[in-house]
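pasting for the record
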Amino acid sequence: MTWTASFFAFLRRALLGAAAGGIAGILVGGIGGRLAMLLLRFTSPGSVRGTLTDDEFEIGVVTFDTLNLVVTTWALGAIAGLFVALALRFMHGRWAVWAWAAPGATLGGAGLIHGDGVDFTVLEPAWLAVLLFIVIPAAGLVLTAALVRSWQGWWWVNRRRTAIVAVAAAPAVAFFPVGLAVIAVGAAYAFLAKNPVAREFENSVPARTAAVAVFSLVTIGFAPVLAADMAAVL
């Protein structure tokens, strides 16, 4: 495979991940997150209605700010999808899709849960709020991985379907630093792919072992942060 062919194959894979992540971000992060806040509105005292969350959304009130939430989770999902799609190349087996729940729970939970502010001080019960905001990012990454696995068979083969679904990758493509990083990594990948030994390394046992090790370290590394945040809330 030529350098150009390897480079564009990498970009197609990255676009697949961004599209899958974007859709997961909208469905799980945006719509799912709004439903979670609605549930917490019903389980919390009536006085919380209309209170601004830490992200400045009104609790219990559906406004155009909800669209901002969906756009935000869409963008975050698209960027996360890049990492999921590229990492899945080294992760084989059905377990790989479900394994993404672990970093989603620890990394996502650590980013969303905090002991100060409104979200985890006025909403009740606190344990439900914590559980929901651990489950949401975990489910988002699992759905992203599942979509990548499901779509990779027709991706770029069915050009019309690919063009339609690829719209969901727009935030990752439009955000210049991310796009530039993908191009740089893709160029390096294509350069290494020119070497037969390097090309075969991707499917080797050492490569898979290293991928699982990094995956595990990221998951475990954020676990203490999540535990501390949960302790502060509960």
